[in-house]
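Researcher: I'd like a structural prediction for the single chain below. Treat it as a standalone chain; there are no partners to consider.
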Amino acid sequence: MPGIPKIKLNNGTLMPQLGYGVWQVPDAEAEQAVGTALEAGYRSIDTAAIYGNEKGTGKAVAASGLPREELFVTTKLWNGPSETWNRDNVLREFDASLEKLGLDYVDLYLIHWPRPMREDYLAIWKVFEEIAASGRAKAVGVSNFRPVDLRRLRAESELVPAVNQVELHPLFPQTELRAVHTELGIATEAWSPLGQGKELLTLPAVAAVAEKHGRSAAQVVLRWHLQRGVIAIPKSVTPARISENLDVFGFELDGTDLAALDALGTGSAARRIGPDPAVFDV
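Model: Treating it as a single chain, here is the predicted structure.
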């Protein structure tokens, strides 16, 4: 199987373009699931404090025997509404994540949601600048940030987020946001790259492209992400699907294929499956 390509982030850090996500994987199952992914060939693992599975993820990383420098580990600050966020509690939460993961550093640390109504992501970002400068996160970024949030960060800070991890799939391609990312030098990463449930994967347009290439629907959707320059982190706990989702480098979609998948999210057809960052504050 060809190697996973890497995206060069705006600080020079190299990030695998295809990773393994552990959202909704219980901590007790995370060690086995992540271990299976690492054995299959994944080298980028995406977790978060709110997922509650950093310990299991860290155990899998330790048990893998892989050199730390070959791995790319992402986690996220859960900047929830229960606290007023300041330097002390951001650093406390970052230290807690490192301890649970059993790591001296992470490769990428993200603010999980902008929560614009709270007016505190700028203060949190200032602490992220400090974390980045310390080397305990090789890169820092954000998740679910809108163009207006990114432009505000850019106006107030010299440090541009390396990554913005957002809902993105053919039914919600985030065309405007991706253009802003290109303008500002931010890498685009997709959570739920296959959508949720089977809706996207059973659409006739997706099935037609899959049949044309002799591939699964999931494989052609992941290939769409890769050829659009997006970092994708599919999730599965089924070993066969974990391997299948990685086996996407032996074929290419042509212009007709890409256009067919692009068309799924144009105009009124585009729709979210997750929360709207403008109002999310749970």
